[in-house]
Amino acid sequence: MNYIEAMKKRISVRKYEQKTYPSCAILKEKIKNLIPLNKNIKYRIDIVDKNTMMDLFKGIVGNYGKITSPNYLLISSEEKENYQMNCGFVGEQLALKLAYEGIGTCWIGGKIDKKLVNEKLGIEKNMTPQILMAVGYPKEKLTFKTDRKRKSLNRLIMSKETDKFDKIMDLVMLSPSAMNSQPWNFEILEDRIRVYENPGVMKKLLANHLNGFDIGIVLSHIYLATCEKFKTKPKIEKEEIEDKNYKMSVII
Question: What does the record give under GO molecular function (predicted)?
């Protein structure tokens, strides 16, 4: 598949046709082939129907922008270091795979009754439900939109040594985030892109707990766009940088 085309098509879909994705088996195969940020963090993605979701996630599903989809994905994980980033990293890969086929998705963050969900869905005790994603056929066909509300790259790039990643960064700007906050800054070096967390005042007040997922999402865009543009698999690792806002580097 072409991840660059998928990034251009992908938007957060809030209105769905009330028909299910054609095959749970196909969806499970896509889930099985995802690349994790950290192979040592166990995670799982469950496919859950609308009725079950309405019972388990009252106050989340149906209220967030009135999203009602025939199916949802629930990402659960061990709570190890950077587990939220890992969830965002794999979840956004899946969203892009689906967008390429014209299937809509939307990340949904909210308070989850983790004990209840674990019991009802048979999730292992060492796993904790983390975040939801609506999935289904969008009422409007997915197409590239040029009027997305995004901060300018000049506001997000802290320093820049080269122009060779400019096209990568244009695609990174399409990354979704909670409250459309784009809680990140970047350093562009000759051989790497460093990612920093910068949620802003409103995000800190209302959705600071979702920053880890957002960082994972933007790392996924950098990684996949780099794979496509440079025909190579970059490394993602944490350097020894004394800045509490520094999160990870994508090394090309």
Answer: oxidoreductase activity
Domain count across the chain: 2
Provide the whole-model pTM: 0.94
The residues with which 237 forms a beta bridge, in sequence order, are 249
Please check whether residues 179 and 213 belong to one and the same domain: yes
Residue 156: Cβ within 10 Å count: 18
The half-sphere exposure of 39 on its side-chain side, counting CA atoms within 13 A, is 3
Q: Please, are residues 225 and 172 in contact by the beta-carbon 8 Å criterion?
A: yes
Hey, is 179 helix, strand or coil?
Answer: helix
Task: For residue 206, name the pLDDT band (cuts at 50, 70, 90).
Answer: confident
Q: Is residue 7 part of a domain?
A: yes
Q: Are 192 and 169 in contact (CB under 8 A)?
A: no
Distances (CA, A) of 181 to 12, 128, 144: 14, 25, 20
